[in-house]
User: Fold these one by one.
Assistant:
Number 1:
Amino acid sequence: MTTQTSDLLAAAAPRTVAVVRGIADDQFDLPTPCRDYLVRDLLNHLFEVVVNFQDLANKRQVEWADKPDHLTDGWQDRFKTETDKLIGAWSDPSTLEGVSPGMGLPQTVIGGMALLDLTVHGWDLAVATGQAYQPAPEAVAELHGLVEQLGPTARKMGVFADPPPTPAATPAAAQTPPPDLARLLTQTGRTPTWPPTP
C-alpha cells in the first residue's frame, strides 16, 4: 500500500541519499546556502527531519528542541535506513487524514513538508559539497503549490527568506539548476546560482 506522499518521497529520497553518501567527513565545516548552517548542521537537521516526520506521520508529537549528533559511525547508512522508514511511515492512507496534533496543520501538508526538506536540502548539500543534483521532477512540480501556501507564514517565522532579486549574470563557477527547480529555490529564499559572486 502506498500514498501519493510516500510515492513522492520514494522518488525524491534516492537522489538526496546519493548526495549524502557523497559527503566526506572533511566537508562538515563547509558553508551551505542555508544561512548560519554548515554542512554538519544541515546534515543533522535533515537527519532530524527524516526521523521526526516518521512520528508525525503517525500523529505523534515530536520534540524539536533535542539536537542529537547523528554524524557518528555509520551515519550515511543510517540516513538511508531512516529515509526508507520515512517512506514507509507515510505509505498508509490513514497518515494523510486529519490534522497534526503537534503542528496544527493538515496531515497532507505535513507530508509535503517532509518532501520539501528532502528535496531542497538535497540541493543545498549538493552545491555546498560540489556535487551534481537533479531532483525528482514530480516532487518539484508538487512542491510549488505547497511553498506558495506556506510562504507568507514561513517568511514571518524566518523559515524562508524573501525571494532574492534576479541576478544580472550567472557566476561561471555556479551550477545553474533547471528552471523548475530554480523557481522552487527562489520561492524558499535561496539563490539558485549559489555560491554568489564574491
Number 2:
Amino acid sequence: MSAAVLERLVEEAGGRLRIDIPIPPTGSGDLIKKLPELLRLAPNVPVLLLTDLDRKECAPGLIGEWLGHRVKPDGMLFRVAVREVEAWLLADVENFANFARIPLAKLPETPEDLDDPKQTLLNLVKRYSPSSLKRELVADYGHGPRQGLAYNERLSQFVHVCWNLEEASMRADSLARTRRRIGELADQWGAPA
C-alpha cells in the first residue's frame, strides 16, 4: 500500500520527481535493513521513505529510533503515516465510501486518531461492502477480519483512480505534511515542471 501511495504522491509533483528504483518491502523490518544503503544514496539522489507509525508514540521518536546516531541527509525524505497509511485512504471519506459501498456516516471523521486504521477499514468492508469486494479485501479465519489476497491490488487501484489527495489531506495531517514536503523536495531536486 505504501508503494502505491508514494507513487501517487510523486505523480502529484507534476513530473518534477520520479521513482527510479522502488523498494518493495514486506514490512518495516526490510526498510530498516535497507536504511544504511538509502542514507548513502540520499546525498546524490532524492530518497523517499514512508512507513507507518503503528503503535509508536510519535513520528519524530520513530525516526530517531531508526536513524540512531546517523544523520539524515537533505536528500532523504523520511515520512511517517499516522498510524497507518490506511488512515490516509479512509480520510477521503466520500470516495472511499463510494468505492467500498460503506455508508458515509460510518467512516471515521478523524482516521489518524484510530488505534488501528487497517483493522477499522477491514471491519467496515466486512460489514458493509458487497460480497465481491469483501472476498478481495478480507480474509476471516474465525479470529476476525484480516487482509485478503487482493487487498493491496484493489486498494492500490483505489489510490490511483479514486483517491482525492486534497480531501484526504483535510482529515489526515500527516498526509498534508507529506504532500508539502514532497513538493519541497521536488522544488529542490526535481526537473522543472
Number 3:
Amino acid sequence: MLIDKNNLPLVDAEFMNNTHFEDVDLINKIYENIEIFEKNNSNENFENLKSIYEEWINHTVKHFLTEEEEMQKRGFFAYPFHKGEHDRNIEDIKAVWIDFEENRDIEALKNYIEYDLINWLVNHIRSMDTVTARFFNTGMSPCSMM
C-alpha cells in the first residue's frame, strides 16, 4: 500500500473526503500493478496497469467536475484558480501515461506516483480543498476567520 487513508488530510465536506478515499484506493491499485509490472513486464500486466490507470483518470475527471460544479453553483470566489489546478493535474496524469506507453519506463511512472502525485494530492487537499470545503459549509474563506 502506498497511501494509508488514515494519514490523508480531511476537509469540511464529507463528499470530498469520500472521493479522496476512492482516489486513494485507485492510486494504491495502480501502485500494486506497477510493482507487478516491475517483476514481469508481460502484455497482460501492461494491460492490467493500463486498465486501472484509465479507471483512475476517469474517476479523477468525474471527481474534479463534481467539485467544479459545486463551486460554480455556490459562487466560490477562487473557482478559476482551483479549476486551473485540476486542469493541470489532469494534463499531467495523461502526459505521464502517454510517456509510459511510449517508453515503458516503469521507474519514471513509479516515481511520478510515489512522489509527484502523492505530494500534489496531499498539498491540494491541505490548501485548495480545505478552503473550498470550508466555503461550502460556511460561505466564508478560512482566511477571513480571526
Number 4:
Amino acid sequence: MTDFWFYLKEGVNHILDPDGLDHFYFIISFCILYTFKDWKKILGLVTAFTLGHSIALFLSGLEIVSINSDLVEFLIPITILLSCLNNFWILLKDKASKTQLTTTYILLLAFGLIHGLGFSNYIRIMIFDDDSIVLPLLGFNIGIELAQLLIVTGFLAIISLFYLLLKSNIKWVRLLVNVSICLLVLKMLFE
C-alpha cells in the first residue's frame, strides 16, 4: 500500500509542480466559465480530462502507444489555446448550450490523452521495476484528480470573490483571465 501512496503523491506533485504550469493553465482554462453551483459539471470536466490522461498513461505504460515527445510538447500548449478559444466563443455568446458542454467533455477527454502522452516517458521509467502497472497508475491518477480539484476549488473561490465584488462585470474578469492564459501559453509555444 505504500507504493500506492508514493504514486498518489507523485500525481499530486505532477499537477502542482511550478515547472509544469501548462497543467495549471489548462485546468483554469476549462473551469473559467463556472462557479461553485456548477460543481457537477466541473467534476465531470476534470474527470474527463483525467480519464484521457489515464488512458494515455496506461497505453504508454504497456508500451502500446508511443509518440514523439517533441510533437506532444508542442501539442500541449495548442490544447490550452483551443480550450481558451472555446471559452471566448461561449463568453461572447453569454451562455453555453448543452451541445457545447458535450463538445467540451469530448475535447477534454482528447486533450487528456495528449497531456498524458506528454508524461508517458517519465511514467514508464517510474514504474519500470513494478510487475503491474495498475497500482502505480491508479495512485498516480487519483493524485492527479485530487490536485486538479484543489486548483479548481482555489480558482472558483477567487472567481466567487470577484463575483461578489463586481457582480455583472464578472464576464470581463473571465475574459481577462482567458486572454492572460492565451498570452502565457503563446509565450510557452515560442520557448
